[in-house]
Write a structure and sequence with these properties.
The chain is α+β, with helices and mostly antiparallel strands and 746 residues long. The protein is 51% helix and 10% strand. A hairpin with a 6-residue loop joins strand 13 (577-578) and strand 14 (585-586).
């Protein structure tokens, strides 16, 4: 569970005559993660693609281009058999689609030009002047511009190149007719308007009025749009008829290309090949059986090793599982002997085969309930084959952190519903995994919501479940928003710190376990030092030594009269020792911290500068308490605006859900204060507006719960927890093969 699935390195050696059926068999199994040969073995070269690979690749590119044109998705067809002669059918479809696509492109281009013409003539329609009156003059300069009318007229009037002018306006559009002076340039209006922010409009070449010109363009636009719709309908018909065929062809060509290009990863000679790859150990027998059925004794299949690496990537254990020379069928004796001769050039002095040197890929091996959380681990980096997979710890802690920070039954139900929708209505593995994470986060939000007695920020559950049913004095726990319950606000910070201590201890213990591969001493000094330091310093912080200089809430939070009354008022001053010459009392917890620090200095002197991380990292967890209070405060404000609230003589807040504001004065007299009357008590219009605020407000809190509680929980996992023991950087297990979704096995 905590380790990735065990992988074995396998080698398949044989003559070139059987390479094609071997590739086909391995591809159908979809089990072997092929290793890339780097060309370093004497006498071996990388293989060449099988004949026909280029043609298959070109056809595959064509099919995918056609699917893109049709906007075809992978789930739009049922599986079926690909009939013979499909190449001719594909060519006919390609010709039809390309012709229609070219026509559609031409129509779209013409439609764009028509729209541009309509846009260009719009300013002239505002002027109400026939278009033929705005061009064709020799003695005067005519221009149509758009801009500030006053500034345009002032600029023309001030120009030395214009002796007379007339303007015609329609909105911000100005038609200018100017008579230039004898020594003026060819475009006096343009020269005059150099300093004015205007847009120049070219006059359309037509004798029609703007209205008639636009009407003709609109008719042309309708015709073009109709033609494009006809083309789209023809393409849609092709899509309906040929979707299954195209998807089956794509799948068949994908298989063909993958198989044809596989030799590029092999070590080959003129007569032999060696293929290596990684396979789940428990699948080895199935690989052997399949190849035996396909080619008999014409290849040698060897399980080279079952790798067990330490976390730093070095081989700590390699088990040679099988040895021996290749055997061959009688008809392949000569080729197999050649393969054997070539393979012997790639052996060590010890006799075990030299492998291609790649590390095993990672197959994460987690129970079904924790599977969705693999996505969150992979967002940082996939675990190496050689290290612990932290998915199960993420599964156990992330939802708890999230639920602790939100803690509301109503929001929890919404998160579960959203997660269930994502997990069941989408095909994307990433989306379904996020849905699973949301479900678990929502369940823990419901759990903590019951503990807090809240549903959408209201304490209804607390009153019904804990007071009326169980008559509990401890539950529900208060979030600490009211002045009378302010001790809870600080108490949640202390609880957050304790959660951080436990969480980081787990990380250091996992690091200790990982480092045991280097020996107990290395694990003790490298990882054990951090365990001693974090526990020593925090036991000292919660101890009675120097209590007067420490915050009171450290000792009152769990006192008998505190918010969490378990009777804890701090650790005693264990092992009090006076250091001669130093005005300091050394207690056992602080001594433990110092011992851990010395051990760290001895083992990793550079890391000693980070020794205060055992305090700083724990303080990072107080963000959980802060988000808890922030989200509760937002929900409180939303409910306050709608329901209104009052403070009773004991300092407790109550929403005016069942009473009018006048109830407070009648029931409590002057001992209570109405904080806000509430929109629901302020008339019909205010009630309707309040309902909108109530719904939208809680939606905002729901969304911000993801962006605050979710991101903060993820940050604590990635930055504080993972850094203690996890490196990542593993290679994904990508077996050579394709799952057939559209083509039936031939």
């Amino acid at each position: 569970m905590l380790r990735p699935e065990q992988m074995s390195k396998v080698s398949v050696t044989g003559s070139r005559a059987v390479m094609a059926p071997v590739i086909e068999t391995i591809h159908e199994l979809n089990l072997v993660h092929l290793s890339d040969y780097d060309g370093s073995w004497e006498g071996f070269d990388n293989g060449n693609p099988i004949e026909g690979a280029d043609q298959a690749s070109e056809k595959l590119v064509t099919v995918r281009a056609l699917e893109n044109t049709l906007e075809l998705s992978a789930d739009e067809a049922e599986p079926g058999r690909l009939e013979t002669g499909w190449e001719d059918r594909l060519e006919e479809i390609r010709t039809r689609i390309n012709e229609l696509d070219d026509q559609r492109g031409e129509v779209t281009d013409e439609l764009r030009q028509v729209n541009e013409k309509i846009d260009r003539v719009a300013p002239f329609a505002e002027l109400g002047i026939d278009l033929d009156l705005l061009s064709g003059y020799e003695s005067v300069d005519v221009a149509v511009v758009e801009g500030p009318v006053g500034a345009i007229e002032d600029a023309i009037a001030a120009s030395d190149d214009v002796r007379a002018f007339e303007t015609f306006t329609g909105g911000d559009v100005v038609a200018i007719v100017a008579a230039p002076t004898e020594d003026a340039d060819d475009a006096p209006i343009d020269d005059a308007l150099v300093g004015v922010d205007v847009t120049r409009h070219s006059v359309p070449e037509t004798e029609q009025s703007p209205e008639a010109y636009v009407a003709d363009l609109e008719d042309e636009k309708v015709d073009l749009e109709s033609r494009r719709e006809e083309i789209d309908a023809e393409l849609a018909e092709i899509k309906r008829e040929e979707a299954g065929f195209l998807l089956r062809v794509e799948e068949e060509l994908t298989v063909e290309v993958q198989q044809a290009e596989a030799p590029l990863q092999f070590a080959t000679t003129d007569r032999a090949f060696i293929a290596e790859g990684w396979i789940p150990t428990d699948e080895y027998d199935r690989l052997v059986a399949a190849l035996d059925d396909a080619v008999g004794d014409s290849v040698e299949i060897e399980e080279l090793e079952r790798a067990d690496y330490d976390r730093h990537g070095a081989h700590s254990h390699t088990e040679d599982v099988q040895e021996g020379a290749p055997s061959a069928a009688d008809e392949d004796d000569e080729a197999a002997a050649d393969a054997d001769d070539q393979q012997q050039k790639a052996v060590t002095d010890g006799g075990s085969t030299v492998t291609m040197g790649d590390e095993p890929p990672t197959v994460q091996n987690n129970p079904g309930v924790a599977k969705p959380f693999e996505l969150l681990v992979q967002a940082v980096n996939r675990p190496k084959y050689s290290e612990l997979d932290p998915t199960i710890f993420l599964f156990l802690t992330f939802p708890a952190f999230f639920g602790f920070m939100i803690g509301d039954v109503g929001y929890g139900i919404m998160y579960v519903a959203i997660g269930a929708y994502m997990a069941t209505q989408f095909d994307s593995k990433g989306v379904t995994s996020l849905g699973g994470v949301a479900i678990w986060a929502g369940l823990f939000t419901i759990l903590f919501g019951i503990i807090y007695g809240e549903i959408f920020g209201l304490h209804i559950l607390g009153e019904v479940i804990w007071h009326d049913v169980f008559h509990s004095e401890l539950l529900p726990l208060n979030k600490g928003l009211e002045p009378a319950a302010s001790d809870f606000a600080l108490g949640w910070m202390v609880v957050s710190v304790l959660a951080g201590i436990v969480h980081l201890n787990i990380g250091y213990i996992l690091d200790f376990y990982e480092n045991l591969s280097h020996g107990f001493k290395d694990a003790l000094f490298h990882s054990g030092s951090w365990i001693l330091m974090i526990n020593g310093i925090w036991i000292w912080i919660f101890s009675a030594q120097a209590e007067g200089s420490k915050p009171d809430f450290l000792f009152k939070t769990f006192a008998s009269d505190g918010p969490f009354p378990i009777g804890f008022t701090g650790f005693p001053e264990w092992g009090l020792v006076t250091i001669p010459g130093i005005d300091f009392l050394l207690t056992a917890p602080f001594l433990i911290f110092l011992i851990g620090l010395v051990m760290l200095i001895v083992s990793e002197p550079v890391e000693a500068v980070e020794s205060l991380d055992v305090v700083v990292n724990v303080f990072s967890y107080t963000r959980m308490g802060a988000v808890l209070l922030a989200k509760a405060g937002m929900a409180f404000v939303v409910n306050l605006l709608f329901f209104g609230a009052y403070e009773d003589p004991d300092g407790e807040f109550h929403f005016l859900r069942n009473h009018e504001p006048s109830y407070v004065a009648e029931h409590y007299g002057e001992g209570a204060d109405v904080i806000f009357n509430g929109l629901m008590h302020s008339g019909t219009a205010a009630l309707l507006g309040g309902l909108v605020i109530l719904v939208l407000g809680h939606i905002v809190v729901l969304v911000l719960g993801v962006t605050s509680a979710g991101l903060q929980a993820v940050r604590l996992e990635y930055v504080e927890f993972f850094n203690k023991f996890y490196e990542g950087g593993g290679e994904n297990y990508e077996p050579f093969g394709t799952d057939r979704n559209h083509t039936e096995d031939p």
